[in-house]
Each structure stands twice: as structure tokens, then as C-alpha cells.
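Need a sequence for this fold. Nothing fancy.
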């Protein structure tokens, strides 16, 4: 197999992708809150809404905010919904068609997510990892240092 073959496979895979991906966390924390039921109902709701050709429901790994799970993300919109139950999914899928929802939406501008994004960018070489180093020790370390200094 040569690089042209690999590129052809990659292009075929990209062409087969659906426009919208609903990411449902299937890691331990969200699974313990029935994300499996959420994913199953999402798949059915997408089918019932006639969106199977353009929407993929994908089980994904931990999205890092386990305490707010089950988490469901919708791309490319970039929406993140928190504490989703199997009963919520019809409402969630309707948002893809422009419907309104009162489901709890995560704030992707929260410092938690900005830090996570920075780590991803640093790990992928897109930013300098040194930019993530704190300029002063975290409070707990500062406190310990001060205690020893006495
Ligand atoms: S287990 Fe779902 S966000 Fe971590």
C-alpha cells in the first residue's frame, strides 16, 4: 500500500461523513448516569426525525466534565448539553431542525474548557506547552511553601 492508496481511503472516508455529529459520552461517569439509554434514544430520535442521512450519533470517550454528565455534544454547532436523560433526546434532536430547547447547555467559554483546549493544542504542537505553565505556584503550593518558611 502506498501513500496514494491511503489518501484515496482517507478521501473516501471523509466523503462518507455525515454533516452533523451528535457525540454522546460513553465513558464510565456518564455510563453510570445512563448515557447508554441516551445514545440508544438519540439513534431512534434521529431516525424518527428523518435525519439519518445527515446526522451520525457517535459514542465518544470522556468529555472531561463528568460531574455534569451525561454529556452530549452537537457538531459542527459546537453545542454541549449537560445532564441529558433518555427522555430529553427528542427535544435535543429538534434543535438540529431549528427548534428551541430548555435543556441545560454547557458554557464552552468556561475556564475549565479553555484549559482543556489549551492542553489539547499543546499536545498537538499547535501552541507552546510552556505557555501552560503557571507564572506563580498554585495557591496550595504557595501555602505549603509559606508554612515551611516559618
Ligand atoms: S464520563 Fe462523561 S464526561 Fe467524563
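Here you go.
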Amino acid at each position: 500500500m502506498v501513500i496514494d492508496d491511503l489518501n484515496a481511503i482517507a478521501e473516501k472516508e471523509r466523503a462518507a461523513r455525515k454533516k452533523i455529529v451528535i457525540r454522546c459520552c460513553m465513558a464510565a461517569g456518564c455510563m453510570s448516569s445512563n448515557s447508554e439509554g441516551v445514545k440508544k434514544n438519540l439513534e431512534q430520535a434521529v431516525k424518527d426525525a428523518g435525519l439519518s442521512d445527515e446526522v451520525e450519533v457517535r459514542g465518544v470517550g470522556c468529555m472531561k466534565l463528568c460531574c455534569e454528565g451525561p454529556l452530549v455534544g452537537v457538531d459542527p454547532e459546537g453545542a454541549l448539553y449537560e445532564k441529558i436523560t433518555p427522555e430529553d433526546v427528542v427535544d435535543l434532536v429538534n434543535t438540529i431542525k431549528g427548534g428551541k430547547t430548555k435543556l441545560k447547555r454547557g458554557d464552552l467559554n468556561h475556564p475549565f474548557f479553555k484549559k482543556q483546549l489549551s492542553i489539547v493544542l499543546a499536545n498537538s504542537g499547535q501552541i507552546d506547552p510552556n505557555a501552560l505553565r503557571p507564572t506563580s505556584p498554585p495557591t496550595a503550593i504557595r501555602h505549603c511553601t509559606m508554612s515551611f518558611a516559618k
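For context: The chain has six helices and four strands.
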